[in-house]
Amino acid sequence: MAGAMRSVHAHPPEFARSGHEHEQPGATTFRGAAAPPEIPVIDMSHAGCAMADAAREWGIFQVVNHGVPAEAVSELQRVGREFFALPQAEKQRYAMDPSSGKTEGYGSTLQRDGPDGKKTWADFLFHNVAPPSAVSQSVWPENPKGYRAANEAYCGHMRRLTRTLFERLSAGLGLEEGAMAEAFGGDEVIFLQKINFYPPCPQPELALGVAPHTDLSTLTILVPNEVPGLQILSNGRYKAVLHRTTVSKEKTRMSWPVFVEPPTEHVVGPHPRLVTRECPDKYKAKKFKDYKYGKINKLPQ
Questions:
Q1: What is the rounded CA–CA span in Å between residue 106 and residue 175?
Q2: Which helix (H) or strand (E) holds 153?
Q3: In the annotation, is 113 catalytic?
Q4: Which of 204, 230, 276, 290 is 20 to 30 A (C-alpha) from 120?
Q5: From 91, 118, 157, 194, active-site residue
Q6: Which residues, at least 6 apart from 298, have a Cβ–Cβ distance to it below 8 Å?
Q7: pLDDT at residue 279 in the model
Q8: What percent of the chain has pLDDT over 90?
Q9: CA distances for 100 relative to 90, 104, 166, 205, angstroms
Q10: Is 247 strand, coil or helix?
Q11: Which residues of 59-93 are buried (b: 16+ CB within 10 A; e: fewer)?
């Protein structure tokens, strides 16, 4: 798709969100004279309740002094950029095919969002990176050189960082440090690496790279490139932030989110320690695969 998009000078109608003004990025992006609210920045070299407060009030925060080496991030980004620069035929070798049960791999605006069936302006690649029992390296690109080593190294840092995040967020709820990690599957928690690729768009005021949504994962850790585009629309004890992705007319935007999810058969629900007479459970306990199916198909939960 990326190659075709670069040669497009008029906006294809299947990407244009022109039916309702509230759907158009150009009409709904903050452009006031005052600066928009800034996402909380959490210094992980300091203890305290700032992270839990940000999770309650915002559902999103930036972390610094997190211990992930800059070299690991840079190498992850290098191999991601080089993959999307490959010929289309090479990328198609790893194409996902949901009809055959192959839900990992390369995709190109396969999803239509909303009742009007509009497409999003994006290519993507995603696959599990941990634990080993969930990894199928047949969908990991052989090219560019170093792709697998870069993803394995980065995943190691993500597993360590996630443990620390879970510990601090557990403490913020008054639970033992290991409570959240255990509640979401312990050592069997799934780590899914995705690369989002948003080519230059001829009419970015009408298109979205990702439509407004909340992630279905337990935790999402995101690394962007230098082109901004993630927008917080609203926030919902810890919130799941509603967000979308805008696109640029001149520049390619990319991002590298890692989605941290429970195993599909794992039962998720309110932690028993957090359910009281004054604060009854707000959600039904169910297998994560059932929650995921309902979320994707927009069914009542």
A1: 39
A2: helix 147-172
A3: no
A4: 290
A5: 194
A6: none
A7: 84
A8: 45
A9: 20, 11, 35, 36
A10: coil
A11: bbbebeebebeeebeebbbebbeebbebeeeebee
Out of 213, 251, 271, 295, pick the active-site residue.
Answer: 213
pLDDT value at residue 14? 54
Backbone torsions φ then ψ of 253, nearest 5 degrees: -105, 140
Burial 35-50 (b: 16+ CB within 10 A, else e): eeeeebebebeeeeeb
74-93 mean pLDDT:
95
Residues paired with 259 in a beta bridge: 192, 220
Which residues contact residue 37 at a Cβ distance below 8 angstroms, ignoring those fewer than 6 apart?
Answer: none
- 248 pLDDT band, cuts 50/70/90, is low
Query: Other C-beta atoms within 10 Å of 216: how many?
Result: 16
pLDDT number for residue 264: 93
Query: Is the pLDDT reported for residue 13 higher than 90?
Result: no
Spatial strand order of the sheet with 241-245 comes to 210-213, 241-245, 230-235
289 is catalytic: no
Task: Write down the pTM of the prediction.
Answer: 0.81
Q: Quote the DSSP letter at residue 40.
A: P
- Cβ atoms of 120 and 209 within 8 Å: the answer is yes
The model's pLDDT over 113-131, given as tens digits with 9 standing for 90+, comes to 444 556 777 899 999 999 9
Rg (CA), the chain: 20
d(CA 65, CA 77) in angstroms, rounded, equals 19
pLDDT score for 110: 43
Annotated catalytic residue 215: yes
Told to judge if 281 belongs to the known catalytic residues of this protein, a careful annotator would answer no
Residues paired with residue 232 on neighbouring β-strands, in sequence order = 243
Instruction: Return the structure tokens found at 22.
Output: 């509230």
Tokens of 221: 């850790």
**Tokens coding 276:** 């009281």
